[in-house]
Amino acid sequence: MPAMNDEQLLRYSRHILLDDLGIEGQTRLLQSRALVIGAGGLGSPVALYLGTAGVGRITLVDHDTVDLTNLQRQIAHRLSRLGQPKAESARQSIAALNPDIEVRAMCRRADAASLDAWVAETDVVLDCSDNFATRHAVNAACVRHRKPLVSGAAIGFDGQISVYDSRDPEAPCYGCLFPPGTAFEEAACATMGVFAPLVGIIGTMQAAEALKLLAGVGHSLAGRLLMLDGRAMHFDEVRIARQPACPVCGGEARRS
After folding, report:
1. Which CATH architecture has domain 32-255?
2. Between the CA of residue 153 and those of 26, 100, 157, what are the distances in Å?
3. What is the mean pLDDT of residues 105-109?
4. CA separation (Å) from 77 to 5, 80, 85, 236?
């Protein structure tokens, strides 16, 4: 990639001033590719921050359309875009902030076949979906292609975030913590509600973890689950171990 031009040097100057990042780290971001699954509450801050930070190519995946109830928390969308596909709406919002970034809007569900293709061509995956089926499908694709996964969730006043990095043979995957096939109670915003800033907090943290991974800065949340109680604004951290019997990443599954 050619050297940054004067406008880019100015745009990303506050990153470049950081000793841990600098021109080299910003250049890595400009050369990077990110896949964002979900353009709703979590996906909105994720998409906007990846775009403003200069991630060169962003693929946004969401089959849903913008609804009035979304605007309480999904900051990538606008009242004027009601009925538009969320992925396209988020693409427009990124373009308004940083037109130099290449953004692909995939207005469709993230099924196994599509994920296999999308994950193979990206550098980091951010799961901003709202159901276990999609999360497990995303995790399986990330394990298969050895791509780092930044996973977040938020409902009510409670949020959580972790990184599952399959490049590390000792790191757990999402399936180590939430085994596929296990019955977990699904909680939907439409029935449970969600505190508006909560998705912003977790989504922004997802963006931060992805940018750190792409730029090679600091230490990720791999092996740690960070949980937020929004009522008390209190974080708890739980260590996560890789499960040798995990059907996704353990034993023969990891070596295949």
Report:
1. 3-Layer(aba) Sandwich (3.40)
2. 28, 30, 11
3. 96
4. 30, 8, 10, 31
Q: Is the pLDDT of residue 183 over 70?
A: no
Alpha helices, H only, the chain = 6-11, 13-16, 22-30, 43-53, 86-97, 112-120, 132-145, 174-177, 189-192, 196-215, 252-255
Amino acid at 255: R
C-beta of residue 226 within 8 angstroms of C-beta of residue 160: yes
State the CB neighbour count (10 A cutoff) for residue 105: 20
Q: Are 256 and 166 in contact (CB under 8 A)?
A: no
171 contacts 162 by C-beta, under 8 angstroms: no
- Quick one: pLDDT at residue 187? 65
> Looking at the whole model, is its pTM more than 0.70?
yes
Tell me: pLDDT of 185 over 90.
no
Q: Which of 125, 152, 112 is nearest to 59 (CA)?
A: 125
**Residues with Cβ within 8 Å of residue 190, at least 6 apart in sequence:** 69
- Tell me what pLDDT residue 242 has: 95
